[in-house]
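Bug #77: duplicate submission created two jobs. Keeping one. Sequence:
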Amino acid sequence: MVGEDPVKEGLVANLSRPGGNVTGFSDFANQLAGKRLGLLHDAVPKATSIAFLVDGDNPNAEPDTKDMQEAAAARGIELRVFQSRDNSDFERLFGEMAQRRVGALIVNVAPRFAPYTAQIIALSARHAIPTLYDRRVFPLAGGLLSYGPDRVASSRQAAIYVGRILKGETLGDLPVQQATKLEFVLNLKTAKALGLEIPAGVLAIADEVIE
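Kept job's structure:
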């Protein structure tokens, strides 16, 4: 399962007939820059400067930053990029965000960040930075917002594909599947703690509101 475009990354020839000995799932988690930025700005409309936290050692950092910069430019938002290269640098990076008075933060898709969910959420709260994440586990644990593919639904689809492969179907003949469900999750309790009044229009489109 990949978050980038598998054709663009050269993993398959095309989605419908990948060819070779490869197939799989694309949850396009890394292709949602414009939507994520838009949702965060709609939730925190006063944020004219938004931070973007990436794993500087992950290959997705460069293309994802470019996409986010283009999305920010289209909305007239100043984007400040912060690259994490070590698991001990979160304190420093969040301190820099606070010093630069960023109005909000987007945490990029990064497997290395997963074990530090609690720390990232705590630092966002300590520095009062409204933050949007890629997975619902973050708002469930106290983060503000998340927007991304429903990974439970994608895992179910993947299990079906594994069964088909085990029954003898050729990998290269199986179309690359894409996530069919995206979810927008909002933690209203966290919003209140940050002193935010989430606009009614944002609340209306949330798939899940945690109170």
